[in-house]
């Protein structure tokens, strides 16, 4: 069940990012690498070609998990499916899925659209709240996310990037908690660690890890191989600069509080710290 839940969360993440994908079911206990070794490349390719569309996979799984012959079961299935459909921006594709969902669950399209509208409004409200003005002390994650994700992906695609990160970046500067935990784990390893091994080790600790790593690697692979080292250095530079700006913002907030409290001694200490960080 834990693996299925992780897969469902990963599917929702792919949908939100606008990435089309399917689900390939592997024999229990096998990852893609061990599956290829055990069954052969041709059998694995056939599995990929027979990948199940996200809609069918999720609906089949939910129908097995909840009793679709009872009203509460139908309600739960519909809500979880509509939550995924609310992330699809393509109106035509969303309409196709609503029609299919209506046929499978024997619920009118009108009712499904009403519930979809409620879910969409709730999600928009949540996103608006996330975009509300924030204080300097909480100004951290959104700015760093892109560079950190790309850098993580590059560590998996280029050996030299791993060395660059180890030499030039303190993991404590990373603001994305997932990226930070993954990179800390990578740097603690004496030898190389495969993506499959890393995912197996951290799957229970990091929610949606499979999809998160896949997206990071996908972003990195879009970069021309000859530019990956250069891009990694740019990412490291930006992360360092943003960490510096974050520290300056925090000090500005502390300086402002010290001025309000008229604490001259503390104010002088903070101003000295500010100047020191500014010169770094």
Summarize this, please?
This protein is 73% helix and 1% strand. With 280 residues, the protein is mostly helical.
Large-scale geometry? globular
End-to-end distance: 49 Å
Please tell me how large the radius of gyration is.
24 Å
Return the average pLDDT rounded to an integer.
Answer: 81
Spatial strand arrangement across the major sheet: 1-2
The structural domain count equals 2
Question: Number of helical runs?
Answer: 14
**How much of the polypeptide forms β-strand, as a percent range?**
under 5%
Give the uncertain stretches in residue-range form: 132-144
> Could you describe the largest sheet, including whether it forms a barrel?
2 strands, antiparallel
Structural class: mainly alpha
How many runs of DSSP E, i.e. beta strands?
A: 2
Work out the helicity level.
over 70%
SSE series? HEHHEHHHHHHHHHHH
What distinguishing features does this structure have?
280 residues; mainly alpha; DNAb Helicase, Chain A; 2 domains; two-stranded antiparallel ribbon; globular
Task: Annotate the secondary structure layout.
Elements: H1 2-16, E1 22-23, H2 32-39, H3 41-49, E2 52-53, H4 54-65, H5 71-85, H6 91-105, H7 109-130, H8 141-157, H9 159-168, H10 177-188, H11 195-202, H12 209-221, H13 228-260, H14 264-279
Antiparallel strand pairs: 1-2
Helix pairs in contact: 1-12, 2-3, 4-5, 5-6, 5-7, 8-9, 8-12, 8-13, 9-13, 13-14
């Amino acid at each position: 069940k834990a693996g299925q839940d992780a897969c469902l969360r990963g599917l929702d993440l792919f949908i939100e990012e606008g990435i089309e994908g399917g689900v390939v079911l592997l024999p229990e206990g096998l990852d893609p690498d061990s599956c290829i070794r055990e069954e052969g490349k041709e059998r694995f390719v056939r599995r990929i070609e027979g990948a199940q569309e996200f809609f069918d996979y999720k609906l089949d799984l939910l129908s097995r998990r909840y009793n679709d012959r009872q009203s509460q079961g139908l309600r739960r299935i519909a809500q979880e499916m509509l939550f995924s459909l609310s992330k699809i921006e393509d109106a035509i594709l969303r309409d196709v899925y609503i029609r299919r969902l209506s046929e499978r669950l024997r619920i009118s399209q009108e009712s499904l659209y009403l519930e979809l509208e409620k879910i969409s409004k709730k999600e928009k409200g949540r996103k608006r709240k996330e975009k509300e003005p924030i204080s300097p002390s909480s100004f951290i994650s959104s700015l760093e996310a892109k560079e950190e994700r790309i850098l993580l992906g590059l560590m998996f695609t280029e050996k030299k990037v791993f060395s660059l990160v180890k030499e030039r970046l303190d993991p404590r500067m990373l603001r994305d908690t997932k990226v930070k935990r993954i990179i800390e784990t990578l740097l603690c390893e004496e030898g190389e660690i495969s993506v499959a091994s890393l995912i197996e080790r951290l799957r229970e600790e990091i929610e949606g890890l499979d999809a998160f790593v896949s997206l990071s690697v996908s972003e990195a692979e879009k970069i021309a191989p000859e530019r990956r080292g250069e891009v990694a250095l740019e990412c490291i530079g930006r992360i360092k600069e943003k960490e510096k700006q974050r520290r300056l913002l925090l000090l500005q907030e502390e300086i402002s509080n010290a001025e309000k409290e008229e604490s001259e001694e503390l104010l002088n200490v903070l101003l000295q710290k500010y100047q020191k960080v500014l010169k770094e």
